[in-house]
Amino acid sequence: MPVISDSQLPYFRYGPAESSRAGSGRLVSTPGWLYYEGPGGRHCLKDEFGEAALSQHEASRISMVMRRVATGANLKRDVKHLRGDIYEVRIDGDHRIFRLLFSREGSENVLLGLRFFGKKSAKTPQSEIDLANQRLRHWRQSDG
Question: 101 - beta bridge partners?
């Protein structure tokens, strides 16, 4: 069962990165991905990528689309605004569809990955958007 590795993800960071906000240690000065850390330092997105049991092709596809989004070279179909500060990256896998919910943080220099899941319905479930919002509130309250 293939699992996505840290090296396959662009701009893979959980903790301190080059700071663009004095003292925060969390925001980067160039656009890139930062992944939400849950309470106790749990790497929620890494767990969610692992649970998806991605094939090598799917992992490469996810990495490619995330790179496009991070560099502003994304296609119109790659990103959709859902609600408030929550957006989704749309990724087609081998025989399934994935979504990565994120927020643009720190003058939009950071794409904060909040939730990754396999999509099973035509519309993104409200429960997934709510979880992403909950994680975003937690991240912001902990000074991001």
Answer: 88, 115
